From TrEMBL:
<dbReference type="InterPro" id="IPR027383">
    <property type="entry name" value="Znf_put"/>
</dbReference>
<feature type="domain" description="Putative zinc-finger">
    <location>
        <begin position="34"/>
        <end position="67"/>
    </location>
</feature>
<feature type="region of interest" description="Disordered">
    <location>
        <begin position="1"/>
        <end position="22"/>
    </location>
</feature>
<dbReference type="Pfam" id="PF13490">
    <property type="entry name" value="zf-HC2"/>
</dbReference>
<protein>
    <recommendedName>
        <fullName>Putative zinc-finger domain-containing protein</fullName>
    </recommendedName>
</protein>
<dbReference type="InterPro" id="IPR041916">
    <property type="entry name" value="Anti_sigma_zinc_sf"/>
</dbReference>
<keyword id="KW-0804">Transcription</keyword>
<keyword id="KW-0805">Transcription regulation</keyword>
Amino acid sequence: MHRGQIRVTAGHTRPREARSSRDAVVHDLRDVECRSTRAVMHDYLDRRLPARRVRRFESHMDGCPRCIRAFIDARQTAWTRKAAARNRSWSWSG
Ligand SMILES: [Zn+2]
């Protein structure tokens, strides 16, 4: 390895048109799926998500590490919030 040499290839950008249209569609669909998954994350945590939507949510989470990461963060926030609420009322159920 020659550390003194900077590789110029890192700056190489592939034009959008070069990708096959099918790849672009798959990417877009995934992006939409990610966005809608994250949009309902708090509803899911609050158990306000309809069962049909839950299944879709969970199956997306199954294959999307980025959404799992976001979910862990959201859950942490929700737990902190709920813990604060429980400290006031102590209403445990089940
Ligand atoms: Zn995702």
